[in-house]
Amino acid sequence: MQPETIYDTYTIDTPIGTMIATADENGIASLDFTDKTPQIIISKYPLLLQLEKELHEYFAGKRKVFTLPLNPHGTPFQKQVWETLQTIPYGETISYAQEAEIFGNPKAVRAVANANGRNPIAILIPCHRVIASGGGLGGYSGGIEKKEFLLALEKQEKE
């Protein structure tokens, strides 16, 4: 029997809302937006404190690459898709079809898009950089207004 993984949880305020992060000994396991007013969770876990620092730098336009170890939980297919997402450069966008092609299976557009929707680590695994083939924004689990904000932030800082 596997020992139970112990997670530390932390809330982080960002310009686009409160986020809840979890981490274990192997890395950041999740980072997601919350619409609820969360109970403020204070962490002394160095990884989560570093995440907060790097997120603040990102939103201030001072960070384009995150340095934290990631440990998202998902199927092998989902993890491969999330690795593909991490190859999209800061400030750039690709279509779901392009992502499927980079992933190595051009016919898997729908499956790749579904895996994007299950991405447990917002921003650091940048699914917000994937848009519809026609140039529309497509979906975003955090809400389309957050996707618009993130894309505008990256575009502004890239220029």
TrEMBL record:
GO cellular component: a single term: cytoplasm
Chain ranges of the Methylguanine DNA methyltransferase ribonuclease-like domain: 11-71
GO terms of molecular function: methylated-DNA-[protein]-cysteine S-methyltransferase activity
Domain called Methylated-DNA-[protein]-cysteine S-methyltransferase DNA binding: residue spans: 76-155
Compartment annotation: Cytoplasm
Annotated keywords: Cytoplasm, DNA damage, DNA repair, Methyltransferase, Transferase
Additional information: This enzyme catalyzes only one turnover and therefore is not strictly catalytic. According to one definition, an enzyme is a biocatalyst that acts repeatedly and over many reaction cycles.
NCBIfam families xref list: ogt
Protein name, as recorded: Methylated-DNA--protein-cysteine methyltransferase
Organism: Sulfuricurvum kujiense
